[in-house]
Amino acid sequence: MSSRSNDLILKTTTTIIVFVILAFSVNMLFAGHNAPGGGFIGGLMGAGALLLLYISYGLKPVDRILPINFTYMIASGLLIAILTGAGSFVLNVPFLSHSFGYFYLPLLGKTELATAMLFDLGVYLTVIGVTMTIILSIAEDKVENVEEEGN
Amino acid sequence: MLHFYIFAPFFAALLIGLFAKKGSRIHTGWFVLPVPAVLFILFCSKLPVLAEGKIVQSVANWIPSLDIQLSFYLDGLSMLFSLLITGIGSLVVLYSIYYLSKKEQLVHFYVYLLLFMGSMLGVVLSDNVFVLYTFWEFTSISSFLLIGFWFYRERSTYGAQKSMLVTVFGGLAMLGALILLSITAETNSIREIIANRTDIIESDLFIPILILLLIGAFTKSAQFPFHSWLPDAMEAPTPVSAYLHSATMVKAGIYLVARFSLIFSGTDIFFIIVTGAGLITLCIGSFLASRQTDLKGILAYSTISQLGMIMSMLGFGTGVATLAAIFHIFNHATFKGSLFMIAGIVDHETGTRDIRRLGGLYTFMPISATLAFFGAFSMAGIPLPIFNGFLSKEMFFDASLKLEQTSGFAATFAQWVPFLAVAGSIFTFVYSMYLVFGTFTGKAKLDQLEKKPHEAPIGMLISPIVLIGLVVLIGLLPNLINEPILAPAVASVRGDLALIHLKFWHGLNTPLYMSLIVVILGILLSLTLKKWQPVYNRVPGKFSTDRVYQGLVNGLLTFSKILTKSYMTGSLRLYTSIILVFLVISTSAFIYMTDGFKISFDNLAPVTWPEVLIGSVMAVAAIATIWMNQRIAAIIVIGVVGYGLSLLFVFFRAPDLALTQLIVETITVALFLLCFAHLPKLKKSDKKSFEKLLDFVIAASTGALLTIVAISSHSSQYFDSIAKYFVDNSYKLGGGDNIVNVILVDFRGLDTLFEIAVLGLAALGIFAMIKYRDKGDMNH
After folding, report:
1. Within this chain, do residues B552 and B451 fall inside the same structural domain, yes or no?
2. Boundaries of each NADH:quinone oxidoreductase/Mrp antiporter transmembrane domain copy (chain B) (predicted)?
3. The whole model's pTM is what?
């Protein structure tokens, strides 16, 4: 995906917008318990932000800056989700029993913390991993084909 | 004790491999021989017990919860058969030691033979109907293995397959009969079933039971029209033919009819079917036997006709007839066994069994020839006191004259029985003469034989000598076996003990005249055999059951091929149509039958204009997709439906769904565009207008069905929704205000866990498909 023209405007706006989207995505994740949102939508938006980066800057530069293996991300997301569920065994309650409480944290004040959040984090990571794996697999494949045809 | 008797052959079959070493000097058969011989002696030792009118029995648990017990009992009928199985079994094993060379796969042979012997004993001794059925199928399987012993010959495998198909068909029919019997009589024990005979005769299931049971018996005993497997089973080694196809297995059907005849005998339908089938078999079998050119072929048809005779006597149901049947079972086993063995000797010593190439063997094989004369004369029923066959045939005629049927068709039919009996016996005489004189007299055709014929080794002759000895002994002194063996057997078939004295000379009476007619006409027909033999070229022609069988098998194959090809076309369009049509038909039939359609206008929300607008846009987009000529255009138009849906979610106040739908729709549209860019241009559909119409009808009816289901299910809410619980408890228990999210991650977190697992798998699947595919295909 070598850019033939100088996409200056796209790249510049991307750098700004990506952070906005990422922030919104993380917000979705954390706010999900009490407002519309959650791990799934947050994950999809996070993936959207990363996708925008790939579109504007191409595969190789982004891979260099963000050396993430998204298939590992799927695995870690699933692992977090399962471990969150299995954690309830330690307290001798059924699988996937969640609990929550209110804590006073520095800077944030009175905050609600729920173990369901951890589970949602797993969902979040999995969804990002899945989306990116699918899209990058297809995209990289196309690049190889183009190169081979070029040769 | 009986358990040990029955399972001894099975154990022996298990162990035989240990004794038979390759290259050993001792023929494996010698290790096998003691098994039937000892069993024979053991069974003989029970004879005095039976003579007192008692029975021997033993019971062991097998599946007590289903009332299936390994219960065995030995009464007169079982005793007769057990003696035949073990006695002739010993002789056959002895004969096979000389018949089969050590180069054959002897262990296989004897394992199959012992399995057969054990299962045959199981059949005749079982008291439980399901145990009976188990052993019955064991005999089918072991006989299948024995017929196909020379599996490299095409005819052997064909014969084995045919006998398997026919006998297993009958076996399954019999299983049906046995199940119905055990339901009707409320017990699985044969003796208790027979004791409940009035219940069975009065029940509605009587006719099905009778017919299914008789199908089982007729297929096993090669009765018309199921007889055609027996001649093809002659590809088996001769000891097998002698054992299975003359003395034991083919009599299993006879045993079955005899065993259950206490229930059925006396009813007209039993008489008509059993006697009718028996007499037809007798006539057809004896008529066709003289047509054969193969010695064993003649013997096979002869066995068929003799079994028909026994069967018809069982159908008569009178005391004399039953005794005659039992007597003939015994006699037939002796002379037919010996004749098979002699046919085997002839085959062994001359290299052929084709009667056209044989002749004049008397000078070369005097002992075999003498034995064959005795056997064949006994089979033909020559009126001399040294042939046991004559005695039973005379009783057959006698019984055929004394039928007690009074009513309707049965009475008319009974008048014809003696004539059919005589006709069948005439042809029996003809083929018996054809068999011995064709083989042993006339001019020897030495140039046509593979080797110079000479007398068989003495070991091979022992068994036929013993059997012919029995023929003569019983011919002379029939009462020797009458009292200890035949009378208890008749008693267990008839239910009461009535000893009938057997004697050769009855005085000048009708049966004797019938015998004389048979002999005279038989001699005339035998002498003119060459002249009328061309008849066989025309009869049976098309009516041959062989052709019927072959036609059925071929027809079934062709039919199933056509059927499978008609819907397994590989066309996804067809499969989808079938699935949808089935869905529509079954669901709408169910709605119709249960009166499930319901429409109520209560509890409906008001419809607002934006909803109507979005809905109609979605409908227009969905319909428009059908006429899109380009894939990409179709994807984008279908996207309208997705975005419309997410808008609807907004109006229905489902923000999470709306967000998710929006993003997922975007991603799927993008992915579709990415993938479809590689696909070739959409071709103009070349479907015929009829097919299009059909598609339209299927699609429209599926849509209509789902609409009806949706309306009906919305209109009939039987229970309160559980949503209230979630609304009330989402904050209290889950600590969140977003009820959807709390349900997803807390109340129903397991679903979510597996949904993300599904997503992960899908991603890995795509990854693997793209990264690890065979890339050679893409770049040509």
Report:
1. no
2. 126-411
3. 0.79
